[in-house]
Specification:
four-stranded antiparallel β-sheet; 97 residues; alpha+beta; 39% helix; globular
Length: 97
């Protein structure tokens, strides 16, 4: 089970501020986004339940190599094998609110 997400830079910064109290300092590289998402999962006690996959940037719907102020970040949260469905849904609901 997986859930894909797409956030603008501002929405992603608002999400990280809400979940871990830090605005994403660097929006330029996928590994920075991945580290931040893993920190969000740790804060939600979901690092053993969910993995982060398929991080990429897109501008006007087309993939680009790095982020900037008009770029959206895309990522997928995937349920780990032994995670219960309701546990997965609870974690992803935090990213939807």
């Amino acid at each position: 089970m997986k859930q894909a997400f797409q956030f603008s830079k501002d929405k992603f910064c608002n999400l990280t501020m809400k979940l871990i109290g830090v605005r994403q300092p660097s929006f330029l590289r996928e590994e920075h986004i991945g580290d931040t998402l893993r920190n969000c999962l740790i804060a939600l006690e979901g690092e053993d339940l969910v993995t982060v996959e398929d991080i990429f940037f897109a501008e006007h719907g087309k993939p680009v190599t790095s982020g900037n102020t008009v770029t959206d970040v895309h990522f997928t949260l995937a349920k780990k094998e032994n995670t219960k469905k309701d546990e997965f849904l609870e974690i992803i609901s935090k990213f939807n609110s």
